[in-house]
Amino acid sequence: MYVLSLHSEITYNAYMRKVIHVDDLLPHEREHFIIRPTTALEKVTASAINAIFAFGCATPFLLVWGPTLAWKISVVVIFALYEALVFRVYKDRCFGMQILNMYHKYRFNRRDHMLYSVLYALSFSTCLIYIWVPFDLLLINIFLVQLPVVLMTGTTLHGWLSGIESVRLVRTR
Fold this sequence. Notes:
Elements: H1 6-18, H2 27-30, E1 33-37, H3 40-65, H4 69-88, H5 95-99, E2 102-104, H6 110-125, H7 136-153, H8 157-162, E3 166-171
Antiparallel strand pairs: 1-3, 2-3
Helix pairs in contact: 3-4, 4-6
């Protein structure tokens, strides 16, 4: 098993912060990584981290308005703005992706990211909107839409429609 020295580990961490897409790795650097698709559990965990961030930012509105429709709309708007800011400020990697060490497989343009952000925000809104009982649309979205698409294509519906795919880089040595 390959053991890193403290200096090489610091250098590696500084270097990986600059890698945004798998395309950023040079050919001779790719031999040190296994590029594998993210699992459904990793995708759910990253989305949960992003949702927690959006709910946390919307807490002041909850205290002012209570759990009303206005608050629900504010949470979805905050989530959509967060996704839009990720593209500009954090170089395409949201907090969930950064925490779980996930990357985008390919570079993508602004149009694809905006489509992804809108569809992701619509998918997220199923956490707040329901028809019969709380979370009914969320469960339908997860088990009848997202999970089957992830199992068939390897990515979520919004990722598949926009052409944005996430992967994990696993270091081999």
